[in-house]
TrEMBL record:
PANTHER family per the UniProt record, alphabetical: ATP-BINDING PROTEIN RV3427C IN INSERTION SEQUENCE-RELATED (PTHR30050:SF4), CHROMOSOMAL REPLICATION INITIATOR PROTEIN DNAA (PTHR30050)
Stored InterPro entries: AAA+_ATPase (IPR003593), IstB_ATP-bd (IPR002611), P-loop_NTPase (IPR027417)
Protein name: AAA ATPase
Gene3D superfamilies found in the cross-reference section: P-loop containing nucleotide triphosphate hydrolases
CDD domains to which the protein is assigned, alphabetical: AAA (cd00009)
Molecular-function annotations in GO: ATP binding
AAA+ ATPase domain location: 104-240
Superkingdom assignment: Bacteria
GO biological process terms held by the UniProt record: DNA replication
Pfam families: IstB_IS21
Length: 265
């Protein structure tokens, strides 16, 4: 009896590892996980889930097309100031309300002078959603047009279709620096195709531009005088003017001060 009992109880945690079940009128001994083995099993499952989640996140980051320097833009790293506090709260709120904003196809059009934090804000939003395993693509207008062009020599139309489809399939598309691309009929056509496809699929976009709204409208107006691309954007995105002190100007002044201090030493 003592030998049987020692087999039924785990020597490590003192819980049962054998149970007696009544099956069709007969008693049968069934092996079960004791507490310590159950804990090991659950930890292994948790580790595997985390590993799969990390693998999926890395795949999403690769799929996002985001430049390496923007992958470290996060709200945790945000240098909050009185001037950019509203911008910070806007980005956080957009992420917190993502499910509702996505269902209502609400995007943002961040416009204003260069270096005011538009790209940083959009990258923070993109990285936050990626951490939640939400498919995001973040790329500049020049970058996506160059990618399409690069397929012509090797892949032909199939390569272009694949890129356009990836723009369609992402839950959120971040299009950076719109208006910096060459103003050709071809580029206007491709940009309209991407923007219009997301409009029809009711999938939101975040767009940044260094142009004023009127300048952007002029840039996106076709030779026929119709501003269809701009009109689509304004239907999908809430315009937000960003007027924070230019980070690039501040960085330039910081380097100037450093140079002066070096010369004075």
């Amino acid at each position: 009896m003592e030998s049987d009992l020692s087999c039924e109880i785990c020597p490590n945690c003192g819980t049962k590892q054998i149970m007696v079940l009544e099956i069709l009128g007969r008693s049968r001994k069934v092996h079960v996980r004791c507490q310590c083995k159950s804990e090991i099993y659950e930890q292994e499952r948790k580790d595997e889930r985390q590993k799969q989640q990390q693998h999926r996140l890395e795949r999403l980051r690769s799929y996002s097309l985001m430049d390496e320097k923007f992958r470290h833009c996060t709200f945790e790293n945000w240098n909050r100031t009185k001037e950019n506090e509203k911008l910070y709260r806007l980005g956080k709120k957009y992420c917190d309300e993502w499910s509702r904003l996505k269902s209502e196809n609400v995007g943002l059009l961040l416009w204003g002078p260069p270096g005011t934090g538009k790209t940083y804000l959009s990258s923070c939003i993109a990285n936050t959603l990626l951490e939640e395993l939400i498919p995001v693509i973040a790329i500049s207008s020049i970058g996506i047009l160059n990618r399409i062009k690069s397929t012509y020599g090797s892949y032909g139309q199939e390569g272009e279709v694949e890129i356009i489809n990836s723009m369609k399939n992402a839950a959120l598309l971040v299009l950076d620096d719109l208006g910096a691309e060459n103003n050709t009929e071809w580029s206007q056509e491709k940009l309209y195709e991407m923007i219009d496809s997301r409009y029809r699929l009711e999938k939101p976009m975040i767009v940044t531009t260094n142009l004023s709204l009127q300048q952007l409208k002029n840039k996106l107006t076709g030779r026929d005088g119709v501003s269809r691309t701009y009109d689509r954007l304004m239907e999908m995105c809430i315009p937000v003017e960003v007027q924070d002190t230019s980070k690039r100007a501040e960085a330039g002044r910081g380097k100037t001060m450093l140079l002066r201090s070096l010369l004075q030493e």
